[in-house]
From TrEMBL:
Ranges of residues in domain Partial AB-hydrolase lipase: 2-63
InterPro entries documented for this protein: AB_hydrolase_fold, AB_hydrolase_lipase, Lipase_euk
Single annotated GO MF: hydrolase activity, acting on ester bonds
Coiled-coil region: none
Pfam families with a match to the protein in the record: Abhydro_lipase
Protein name as catalogued: Partial AB-hydrolase lipase domain-containing protein
One BP annotation, GO: lipid metabolic process
Domain of life: Eukaryota
Amino acid sequence: MPEIGQRFGYESEVHLVRTKDEYILELHRFPCKQKEKCDPSAKRPIVFMQHGLLADGFSWIPNLANQSAGFVFADAGFDVWIANSRGTPASQKHIGYGPESQKFWNFTWQEMSEFDLTSSVYYVLKETKQEFLYYLGHSQGTMIMFSRLAEDREFSKKIRHFHALAPVATVSHIGGLFGLFGKQFLTYAEILLGRLPYSPLSIPRTVQKMISYMCSKFLMQNICTLDIGFIDGSEKQFNQSRVGVYLCHTPAATSVKDLQHWIQLVKSQKVAKFDYGKDGNMAEYGQPEPPVYDLTQINTPTYLYWSGDDILADTQDIRDSILSKMNKTIAGSIELPHYSHMDFVFGINAASELYPGIIKTIQDDYDKYRISKLHQLRQYS
């Protein structure tokens, strides 16, 4: 992904982060505006971007420079850091074993929250010598932050704002391809996945390249976008000329266990940790049921960006699982009509309809913070 930034004229950096459970993650940084030399150590607001399920950091730079969140925020003067969760192509390293080992794939978004997110955020703040950052999460990237903020008050102090794009919690009213088959299908899928060894959920790279090549051809672009829309609900905002590029990076790898965890959420309608069964839960958690994340404990200012046309992050789920529990910390709830789940990051309209509002909110807050710090310095000087 740094090469994509370089192709568009952005300075880029690759940083390696070691988690407490010894995964090695890649963070990609865009510290400067397009075709600009800058001092990476200069203080500017940090925006940390976290991708969703079956995605990676490419989600934030999928289109042309003026259409992609990562580049739009960099051009607005922000220090942009893009995460790549464990299991994605850029983060398939571990101190003790590699991706060919079943042990490597023994994780879900729960570990991404507990280990990947915390290690990455603390690394960024140490590297930049700053006190806090602003977080943008999409889809599973919102769940990762919801669960961490619910459990870790000390970590919460490092997140100035949480901007949740297409926020998800239980996804119990999911639509599209998954909703079409119904919960009975999910039950069978859960049984099947539970019998599989810890393994990756991915498309072979050679197959993905072939699909990407075919979908880059003009006559195939509409067919390929329709296929994506069948799962996602819409494809109207996609940059048709980039469809082949989308499919070269998407879907990105995750673990079978991660998908299994999501199926558990749909069925239980609870924002809970992974369910190992009664005996397994006693061994793992010391109780027969998996612990539930208490979102009422979150005190970080949170902004929700959602759509009634998003069949994956359903509005009823947002109301029942998020708004009803976080009403005291929701700083903004913004509906974007006619947005599908992926339009928040892949859609070309987001650069004019969504990102400018977030940029202004962050910049205004950061300016107030700087003014406050100046007043404090004058008082003590």
